[in-house]
Amino acid sequence: MRSIKVLVANDKETDLLIIESCLQLNEVPVKVLKAKNGEQAYELAQTESPDLIVMDWDMPVMDGIGAIKQLKSSKNTKEIPVIMLTAVNRSSENLKTALSAGAIDFVRYPIDEIEFLARVKSVLRMNRYYREKVKAENEAKKLLSAQVDFKNRELAALTLNSLYKKNLILKLKKKLSSISKKCPEANEILFILNYFDESEEDWNIFRDYFEAVHNGFFDRLSAVHSELTPNEKRLCAYLRIGLNSNEISKLLSISKEGIKKNRYLLRKKMGLQTGDSLEDFISKI
Predict the structure, then answer these.
(1) DSSP state of 130
(2) What is the chain's Cα-based Rg?
(3) With CB atoms 3.0 to 4.6 Å apart as the test, which of 10, 39, 160, 218 could cross-link to 62 if both were Cys?
(4) Which domains does the chain have, with CATH numbers?
(5) 74: which residues sit within 8 A by CB, 6+ positions away?
(6) Contact 52, 6 (CB under 8 A)
């Protein structure tokens, strides 16, 4: 059974012993870490990552409120729950100050063993549920991210396959045009190829697939940057699925220099600074 680490910050040895004895009554083994002031408590929390902090209000060097504010401003300790120990004569306004600073609960002196242990168990239980919830959410985000990456690869493959088909048709049409005078049947085939060579239809198919993966992307893009042209929106979509400039230039039938210019104009419209990644910005839309 994993023991629980509880950091107790209190400058009075008697209070430390009382709190430690209360914690030992818990069914789960408790390892007690001790600090004499708020500064020590903050430093210990950074290195030990306790499951709970029991913080006295009045201490030398740094009081409990100051320590809680520092703990909550640190990435490493901001999620650690804190129970504040307060004197019986503290006003409700004082308690509001403690809760606003980041304390999750408070216990008044003199400490009642049953009440104190009940509050400790309640806070630990809530914190365990919270951590499990965060863990599940993070795993769900990772799974969703992996699914989106897979779908993006599928979209890229579909798009490049369409590009291959388009280039093949262009080569075939060029060859047929060169022999059309000698071979009348070539004109019939050219007519058929012209009928099926609908680049706009390819874009509509791509857009439907893209929206299925990135639902509402174009609406969000238009809401933030309504001034974008249709071709700039296409460029954003192609960048979102990870196509490079060479692939995009063929899809949009413009030169690599043209793509470079379009990227520059797009960055300018989006207000990006030197060093900002256009791809990262688009991925967050």
Answers:
(1) H
(2) 32
(3) 39
(4) 4-111 (3.40.50.2300), 143-283 (no CATH)
(5) 42, 46
(6) yes
- Reported as a single tens digit per residue, the pLDDT across 159-180 is 767 766 776 777 777 777 787 7
CA distance 185 to 190: 9
Looking at the DSSP bridge assignments, the partners of residue 35 are 9
Q: Which of 34, 106, 44 is nearest to 70 (CA)?
A: 44
Amino acid in position 40: Q
Query: What confidence score (pLDDT) does residue 196 get?
Result: 57
- pLDDT confidence of residue 65: 93
Crossing angle of helices 38-48/64-73, nearest 10°? 30
CB 1 within 8 A of CB 28: yes
Q: Is residue 67 within 8 Å of residue 8, measured between CB atoms? A: no
Question: What's at 172, amino acid-wise?
Answer: L
Say if CB 9 and CB 55 are below 8 A apart: yes
Structure tokens at 82: 């804190």
Amino acid at 106: F
